[in-house]
User: Fold DUF6671 domain-containing protein from Aequorivita sublithincola.
Amino acid sequence: MKKYRGFQIFKNRRVVIATMHSKEKVIAPLLEAEFTMKCIVPKGFNTDQFGTFSGEIKRVKSPLETARAKAFAALLDCKETLAIASEGSFGPHPESPFITGNEELVVFIDLENNFEIIGRHFTEKTNFNHQKVENLNDLAEFTEHIGFPEHGIILKEVDKDNSENIYKDFKDFILLKKKVLELLDKGKTINAETDMRAMNNSTRMLAIGLATKNLLDTINSLCPECNAPGFSIIQALRGLRCQLCNLPTKGVKTYVYSCQKCNFSCERNKLGTHFQDPTFCDYCNP
Assistant:
C-alpha cells in the first residue's frame, strides 16, 4: 500500500482561486497561513458562465458540480495543478423546512496527486430574502431587514410576458430610491432580492470562510491506514436522540469516514453532540 506524506504534499505550492467575486479575501489568508501557499486569482476569469444568483444565467449543475467546473476551468486558464473554488446554495433546513439555510461548498483539486477534497459549512445565519415592492415603505422595510447597504440589493422588473430586467450594484439608498421611483412611475412590477454575490454580502462571505476552515480541517484529517490527506465524511447516520423525550430524531448521530485513496472507512460519533434540541424533534415539536 502506498504511504502518503499527509498535508505536506500541499505545502509551498501555487493555488488558483477560481473567483470573480472577491472570495480570495477570506480564502487566501487561510491557505497562506496553513500551507504557506501562493494564491493566484486569474484575471478576467468569468464564474458567471456557470450560473448567477441574480438569475441572468441559470445554474444547470448541482452546487458541487458547479464548484468543480469552476476549479477545472481556472486550472486550464492558469496552467496550474492546484485550484480551489466555492459554490453556495440556499433552501430549507434539512431538519426543519420552516428555517432557511445556506450551504457553502469549497472544492480543492490537486491534479499532481489526483486529489479532490471538499469543505462544507451550513448555517441558518443568512439574509437570503425577497419581497414585492409597491411603494417606498416596502423598500425601506426590505432594505432594513437585509442590512443594506452593507449587504447588496437586486431589483427585478417583471414584464407582462414574465421577462425580467435586472438592476444591481446600488451603492447607497439615494440611487436605489431613484431607480424604484422611476420604475413605479412607469407602472412596473418590482421584486427586490438580497444580493447573494459574495463581494456584496458579508454574511455569506463569512460562511465561505468557515467552509474553507472546514476544508483545512478535512485536509489535515489523515487516513489511519495510508496517511493520505482528506480522510472525510461520506455518509451521515441519523437517529440522534431528543434531549427531552429520548426518542430518535433526524439529527445526525454518527458519521462514516472514508479514504479516497485506499478506501479504508470507519464510523465516528459526532463530536460534542449527545442529544438533539427538542426544537428539531418530530415528537416534541411536530
Notes: The chain is about 25% helix and 30% strand. The first helix runs from residue 24 to 35.
